[in-house]
């Protein structure tokens, strides 16, 4: 069982923390300026920012492919639901469809991207139980788009600002300041 609170904990704000915070902030600012809700794009950034590109691709891929599979599956399941209950309102039937959809989600994720089960399940549940009938398709598609944008931003930031490049830049700046103080 993990120790709580950790005895070895030391407060540390590292490069990954800074990249994550700045990327999320920039995405949120852009989204606010264009009048869109930044929540899912920012979640995509936070999931997608890894310690290196390999970690970012794994974590961001989990979020992106899970959201893609769960979002598209939720559209199909909601469509089936509306065939039987066009006005909605029968949540027990929707719960039964969720059970079947969860099996399908897990199988699809096992085939395409195993780490996508959890984020795919989140999107599936949100669309099925929290989205109005009139907007379930656009809602699901927007979640996929926003997540993709967030993950792509995280991947780009991690690609262009890897730790090695930033440390080298920082050391160079420190060297310049040391040289300048000797003059």
TrEMBL record:
The chain crosses the membrane at residues 21-51, 63-85, 92-113, 119-137, 144-161. It is found in: Cell membrane. The keyword Transport does not apply. It is a multi-pass membrane protein. The keyword Membrane applies. It comes from the Bacteria. Pfam families: ArAE_1. Keywords: Cell membrane, Membrane, Transmembrane, Transmembrane helix. This is Aromatic acid exporter family protein.
